[in-house]
Amino acid sequence: MNILINALNGLKERLVNNDLVTQNHLGLTVTTSFVFNNAAEETDIKFLEEACKIILPPDYKEFLAIHNGANLFGMYGGGFRLLSTQEIIELLKKTNTFPFPKGWYPIGYLDGEMLLIDSAKVEKDVRTTNYLYWSLNDSLELKSNRTLKSGS
After folding, report:
1. How is residue 147 annotated by DSSP?
2. Which of 16, 89, 131, 149 has a beta carbon 3.0–4.6 Å from 121's, enabling a disulfide?
């Protein structure tokens, strides 16, 4: 089993009615919600790659095959949004609004910042970790050194 599936299963085990109680930086407990979309069809995943001329990393394909998008750590309507195949296609159609470098595409967003994949750094059917970037104040920052750690 790969690290993505292990992390996803570990997170789901901690949820109670799709909610998770966490502690913020002030020591206060807050309840955050999680909503996972149904699985994408294999045809939807292939269509995304072919129509948009992008390469999806194997671990992201596996996520889409389990959940075609998700809202994570939601509070007051916010949270981290992982996009569905259709949402990615729609965003890529709006390249005048979101001018991504060639071969780059969004897979999520948080507080107006986008999580992007650089297709040039994705090797078909090979697991790598150097393809994820955040858009931060019109610049891009490598995020391969940051990981989400769950409690025990």
Report:
1. -
2. 131
User: Which of 26-40, 102-116, 138-152 ranks highest by mean pLDDT?
Assistant: 26-40
- Tens digits of residue pLDDT in 11-51: 999 999 999 998 888 999 989 899 999 999 999 999 999 98
Q: How far is CA 55 from CA 16, 19, 22, 26, in A?
A: 35, 33, 35, 41
- For 80-100, give the DSSP string: EEEPPHHHHHHHHHTTTTS-P
Residues 6+ apart with CB under 8 A from 130: 121, 142, 144
Burial of 33 by CB count in 10 Å (0-12 exposed, 13-18 middle, 19+ buried)? middle
The Cα 45–Cα 64 span in angstroms is: 7
Q: Which CATH class is domain 33-142?
A: alpha beta
The residues spanned by each domain of the chain are 33-142
Half-sphere exposure of 71 (CA within 13 A, CB side): 13
Phi-psi region of 111 (alpha: psi -120 to 50; beta: other; left: phi over 0): left
The Cα–Cα gap between 152 and 26 comes to: 21
- The closest of 20, 113, 89, 35 to 67, measured between CA atoms, is 35
